[in-house]
Design goal:
alpha+beta, 100 residues, 2 helices, single chain, 2 domains, 5 strands
Length: 100
Amino acid sequence: MSDFWVNGIVAVRDGKPYVQLSNEKGMIAQLSMSQTRQIAMDMLQMAARTEADAMIHKFFAKENFPQEAANVVMLDFREFRAELDAEKAERSEERGGEQE
């Protein structure tokens, strides 16, 4: 794996905070706080989902169950997650940064 750096800056041009991603070749991206949070959440979600997929495969291999069965369970689990993802999150209204 190559080296990867994450730095926070406040830009002189607009005074806003940004997160910079770089590697040994230079800057890969400069992200707003909103973009940074979304990417971080996406990475955490993908890490958890990939771990679950790997666990399904590991369990089926350990128990000498057919690989095809593991694939079916994993696909069903992915469909289940997709259904949950499609549900709308309920949010409370905020006023002035405070919840009522």
